[in-house]
Amino acid sequence: MIVDLSQDEMLSDEDAFLLDIDDDNLLNVSDKGGISEPDTIVSDGLSDRYERDIESEKQKDVALSSGDMLDDDEVPVGSVHDKTEIDDNKFSYEREKRDKRIDGKCYCNNGNDNNINVNINITKPQEPFQPGATPENNNRRYLAMNNIGCITTTFHETYSTITVEFHDQSYNRGYNLRDEFNYSMACLDKDGALYAVESSEMSDSQANPSVLFYKPQETWASKSEWTVTLPQGEDIIAIALCSQGIIAATSTGVIRIFSLCGIQTYILALTSVVCMAGYDELVLIAYHASVGYKGSQNLGYILYNIRTNEILQKDILSITKGSTLKWMGFSTNGLPAIFDSKGVLTILHHHRQTNQARWVPILNVLSNRKEEEINWTYWPVWFTETTLFCFICKSEAYPQIPRPAFDEIILKVPLLNLDRQTGQFEETLVRNSLLATFEFEEAMAKNELDKARQNIKMKNKEMDKALLEMIHLACKEEKQQRALDLSKLLIKLKSLESAIKIARFNNCPILADKICQFKEAKVVELRQLPQSKTGNSSTTVLE
């Protein structure tokens, strides 16, 4: 019997939606909620029933091929009883149907058995992790690693030793800490370090609860360290630290927020958290939005302000299909970003504009790889507006202890035709436009526009320089419409004057006149705006 799984009486809408079948990540699911491991054969007589159906179909096809309509009691000529060879191609579709389970159908028992076993292409969900943390190797591992420093732990028989190191030792001195709890998670910033551990069973009647511990670097007050113990049955699965507070996600679907001195300030419900990262008053949270399928993790994200308790952004977390989230954090000046296992660094553009953010890839480390670099692993640590700092692991999956030197990769937006001069100019334009927008929006959010003015002016200059180079190339190639469109992207009025000179130099008088007309219209527009701000799409400062 063939059961159509899309029917409402058989499965729910969600289960029917997930029934997009292929060979990868195949799990066996029953209506009792059990999921067996991949490659497990689900029996209950289904295979035998299916083989009998296939054999019956073979006999019918052979009978039809003989050209005679037979009675029920007749044996068809050329049937399996006559041992006539059957062309395997005749049944290739049925074999493919059996192997692929296409059209959302599979075979089940014809009896009164309540079990219905189906094959659904469910992706194994990614486990929670801490950015920068590594697996254990020789009783040692990294608990945290970022642009401030790194935290390592060494396991002994009954305790552990935690070592905190700072990249700039003139600002903070490292220290060693005897760890009786065997902390498994940590976060580090310039003001302190945060540690956490799940609960552990000591015996059938006794268990160590999950613990959260914060240790500040330097403070004017004594006894500034604090520890909080979670209730039995609630484990910490992810933590984050920022200058405005501490965030802990637990196994019960709760996110607990504390001040830096240990005061509980807020609590919210969010299940299936995968990773968290903090900066200033913001925390970026990744979680499983739904069941993953066809190689996709189906992750969602929330950008949350712990000072105002506002959700700035909430949407799908865009990682490369078939990949997992490998790192999540902020740049040194506060730009949210993620890095997936396919080597793509993606930033959250317009994250300060409520519900207007979008993920933009700004680097693909695996593009243009050489043959000897195919098996290299990239382990991100932090990034600036120009460079990704990471470890390139040539023979290992993650960095080892002692810490090797950092590798630097220049950010390059993965546009097309980067091997050509035009593509390189376009990449410079797009990258600087993204960064200039971020600088402006961040300065506006913090009321620090005067401080950011110089950085924005520099990015404006770099964008206009790239545009003028592209205008010159377009004029040389006699692509005057392209040159005019590029001229309309110029930010500075002086740059428009330079574009007019370029057009006249390349004997394009009509183009020069059109750029002059655009310049005059822009001057009128700017007179209607505040002198310190622009009204163009790049949201930069004009003077």
Automatic annotation (TrEMBL):
Main location: nucleus
Superkingdom in the source lineage: Eukaryota
Gene Ontology, cellular component aspect: nuclear replication fork
Region (Disordered): 54-80
Subcellular localization, as worded in the UniProt entry: Nucleus
Keyword annotations of the record: Coiled coil, Nucleus, Repeat, WD repeat
GO biological process, one term: DNA repair
GO molecular function per UniProt: chromatin binding
Domain WDHD1/CFT4 second beta-propeller: 127-415
InterPro entries hit by this protein: WDHD1/CFT4_beta-prop_2nd (IPR022100), WDHD1/CFT4_hel (IPR048591)
WDHD1/CFT4 helical bundle domain segment(s): 423-524
Coiled coil feature spans: 435-469
Keyword Nucleus: yes
PANTHER family: WD REPEAT AND HMG-BOX DNA BINDING PROTEIN, WD REPEAT AND HMG-BOX DNA-BINDING PROTEIN 1
Protein name: Uncharacterized protein
